[in-house]
Write a structure and sequence with these properties.
heterodimer; A: mainly beta; six-stranded antiparallel sheet; five-stranded antiparallel sheet; 40% strand; disordered N terminus; B: alpha+beta; 8 strands
Chain lengths: 491, 137
């Protein structure tokens, strides 16, 4: 039997022994002790938020709001990790806090609400974090009838058919009201497809059509949804290996699935401990025809790890290009993200921005840039189409795991321009927002928050893509600090 | 003689039945849908509950307005598993990865920990008139 999330959630008797062992071995108490001594200045990035954040006005502290800029940046990320009776042991396992940064009539506001999940309700009642996660072992008191019961709904948020969908990767989308941020419930895309996994990184075509994957070991569900969230197709495909897949990509014609050599080999808890780094196997890239999922090709590349990819595109001769953040290995997922949660520096190389090139003849290669880069984003109007720019974070260092800078890499010139907020800030992913009426790819803003560590509050920044190195054209300051979020979108 | 035997047989049959009505288990199902039927399996021992045969089964015709399953039983420990067969195809439907797509429940409204509720959570005593209301939605 292929080791899968299903076996983890459907409960083999053997698991209980592994659970008990893992609980003893998981050194969260040791991490907590380390954190006390480390007292990292960036610990606000993984701090707890105790409750929902009521809508509030932000204070403009720099520049002015660009004329014509209007909309909301919805972001999601874990913001509750610790309870008196037990805590999450991994950064990926905290409760999702959905934040809305709104810019309107030159003013900015912030509101945030936790995803009101069965997980959060059960844990609040007991006063302990109970649920198993990516790097957290289940508490014996947890009551789990499906993967959705364990969902922190904490990874990304998309506007679909007038609702916000808070996304995780091992369960269903969670629908929320975009105005009140009130949770409405899990989305079943079809009655016979309830409780299926749905990744937090759907690929959205320029016309709004949504492609996504749901993973189960060496099987993947390929989801195709209309822009309004209606299911158009759901088809199972076989994968050549049970790689950890957090993200995938797509061109206008193809799905591009990067299969890193971090492969699920053991049914143990937590989930992250079941994967093995097997660099000798290299990294594979599976390319599938969107119009016929049986049409596929596999490319062999040197080994690298990754979480995040950009939107792929195809050149006239059929060459596929795909930007991604290449990690040397997946030690961050296996180990580092436990330590980040407790303020411990990582002492490992940050991710490097790189380009995957897949030639029509069947040869593939990874072109490295030497630029530190994570959280790649680009123009949503050009998703799957040829483009010039990637937006990304930069400035991570071995002794500081989170970014302090944002950058724009121009693939035409090979040049990267960046702005460093300095060690006093932790930067989130920033999104691409087209200027009103703008048609050129360069006519855009970068919008995203940082945590101002000295002031102990979050800030919202707008930068001009063409002058990113000049820093923000507008900065607003909140009266609260929200921890680092993972992903979000402008709507 | 024949009549005596018949009466004895009747008594032999009726006596336990009379005793069992003293231990009547009533399960009332609160369903989230009005269609199909709730399929109920009752087990009288841990080994049976965790992978053997049920001691009793019942079909609660939800579409016809039924919500109760009634069992007359010897007193003792039991565990119950139920599935709401929404589409009436006689089985618990699962998604392509094998996860249930129809509501299911266990006695005590127990929920498992990454799997079906185990005997220690679902076990209950039947003694005299016993009733449980089971949420299955």
């Amino acid at each position: 039997m292929t080791p899968t999330r299903r076996t983890l959630f459907m409960g083999a008797a053997a698991l209980s022994g592994a659970l008990a062992a893992a609980r003893v071995l998981t050194p969260d108490r040791a991490y907590a002790a380390q954190a006390m001594t480390a007292a990292a200045d960036w610990s606000l990035a993984t701090a707890d938020v105790e409750g929902d954040v009521a809508p509030r006005a932000l204070t403009l502290v720099h520049g002015r709001a660009p004329v014509g800029l209007s909309g909301s940046l919805y972001r999601n990320g874990p913001a509750k990790f610790r309870r008196p009776g037990g805590s999450a042991q991994h950064w990926f396992d905290g409760d999702g806090l959905i934040r809305r940064w709104r810019i309107e009539d030159g003013q900015a506001t912030l509101a945030a609400r936790f995803a009101d999940t069965p997980k959060r309700r059960q844990e609040a009642e007991v006063g302990a974090m109970l649920m198993p996660g990516f790097g957290t072992v289940a508490d014996p008191r947890a009551r789990i009838g499906s993967a959705d019961d364990a969902s922190p709904a904490n990874t990304s948020v998309h506007m679909v058919g007038g609702k916000l969908w808070a996304l995780w990767e091992a369960g269903s989308p969670l629908a929320m009201d975009p105005e009140t941020l009130e949770t409405e419930g899990f989305v079943a895309l079809r009655h016979d497809l309830k409780n299926m996994p749905f990744l937090a990184h759907p690929r959205i075509e320029p016309d709004g059509r949504i492609w996504n994957l749901g993973l189960n070991g060496r099987q993947a569900m390929v989801w195709r949804l209309a822009a309004n969230g209606t299911l158009e197709a759901a088809e199972l495909i076989a994968l050549p290996r049970a790689s950890y897949i957090h993200d995938f990509s797509a061109t206008a014609r193809h799905l591009v699935i990067v299969l890193q050599p971090w492969v699920h080999t053991r049914n143990v808890m937590p989930i992250s401990a079941g994967f093995e780094w097997t660099p000798q196997a290299g990294t594979q890239v599976l390319v599938i025809d969107k119009s016929d999922l049986s049409q596929r090709r596999i490319y062999e590349l040197p080994p690298f790890g990754f979480f995040h990819a950009g939107d792929a595109w195809e050149e006239a001769d059929g060459t596929i290009r795909l930007d991604l953040s290449a990690h040397k290995d997946m030690d961050f997922a296996a180990r580092g993200a436990h330590e980040v949660l407790n303020g411990v520096p990582l002492g490992q190389d940050p991710a490097e921005l790189a380009m995957v090139v897949l030639e029509p003849g069947g040869r593939g290669r990874l072109e490295r840039t030497g630029v530190v880069g994570e959280f790649p984003r680009s123009d949503p109007r050009r998703a799957g189409l040829a483009r010039r720019f990637s937006l990304h974070t930069t400035g991570e260092r071995a002794d500081r795991p989170l970014a302090s800078a944002v950058a724009v890499t121009d693939w035409t010139s090979g040049r990267t321009r960046s702005f460093d907020f300095g060690p006093g800030h932790v930067t989130d992913e920033m999104v691409y927002v087209p200027k009103p009426g703008g048609v050129h790819e360069a006519e855009a803003w970068l919008i995203g928050p940082t945590i101002n560590l000295a002031a102990g509050v979050s800030e919202l920044h707008v930068l001009d893509l063409m002058q990113v190195e000049d820093g923000p054209v507008a900065t607003w300051r909140a009266d609260v600090a929200l921890p680092a979020a993972f992903h979000g979108n402008w709507a | 003689m024949i009549r005596t035997l018949a009466v004895a047989a009747l008594l032999a049959f009726a006596a336990p039945a009379f005793a069992q009505t003293e231990n009547r288990l009533t399960l009332t199902f609160e369903t989230g849908a009005e269609t199909g039927a709730v399929l109920v399996a009752l087990y009288d021992a841990e080994a049976a509950y965790e992978g053997g045969q049920p001691t009793r089964v019942a079909r609660v015709d939800v579409a016809a307005g039924q919500r109760e399953a009634v069992f007359d039983l010897p007193a003792g420990a039991y565990g119950m598993k139920a599935v709401h067969d929404l589409n009436g195809n006689g089985k618990m439907d699962v998604n392509p990865f094998g996860m249930p797509t129809e509501p299911y429940a266990f006695s005590n409204n127990a929920v498992g920990n990454m799997g079906p509720a185990r005997w220690d959570r679902a076990r209950f005593e039947v003694s005299g008139a016993t009733a449980q209301t089971i949420r299955i939605r």
